[in-house]
């Protein structure tokens, strides 16, 4: 990873954690994870496995488990995403990116000529 990419990831993380409401934070995380996991073959057909507990997610975002669960329910109600156990399924990418204010350019995932 280059220093520029690392700095972009840090700026995006600080912006997301500090500014977005919890459902949007979850949407942003799901978008980023999907793209990153797709790059290495761990996500396809708009779904991926996320073996993490709600307690761990709540800790990551500085929320109580109750608030995290409510945020997940709010996000599910948009019909943009669903969770079935550890399986995350994205039903509407555009809606999910809008909710999470997600712009993938900071990930720098496009292949570069060598």
TrEMBL record:
Gene3D superfamilies membership: Winged helix-like DNA-binding domain superfamily/Winged helix DNA-binding domain
GO biological process, one term: regulation of DNA-templated transcription
GO-annotated molecular function: DNA binding
InterPro entries attached to this UniProt entry: HTH_CRP (IPR012318), WH-like_DNA-bd_sf (IPR036388), WH_DNA-bd_sf (IPR036390)
Domain of life, per lineage: Bacteria
Domain HTH crp-type as annotated: residue spans: 20-94
Pfam families: HTH_Crp_2
Listed name of the protein: HTH crp-type domain-containing protein
Species annotation: Tianweitania populi
């Amino acid at each position: 990873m280059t220093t520029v990419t690392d700095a972009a990831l840090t700026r995006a993380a600080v912006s997301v954690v500090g500014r977005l409401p919890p459902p949007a934070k979850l949407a942003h995380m799901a978008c980023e994870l999907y793209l990153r996991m797709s790059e290495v073959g761990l996500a396809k057909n708009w779904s991926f496995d996320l073996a993490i507990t709600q307690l761990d997610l709540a800790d990551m975002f500085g929320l109580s488990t109750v608030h995290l669960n409510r945020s997940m329910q709010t996000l599910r109600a948009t019909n943009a995403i669903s969770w079935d156990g550890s399986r995350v399924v994205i039903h509407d990418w555009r809606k999910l990116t809008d909710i999470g204010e997600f712009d993938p350019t900071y990930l720098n995932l496009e292949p570069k000529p060598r």
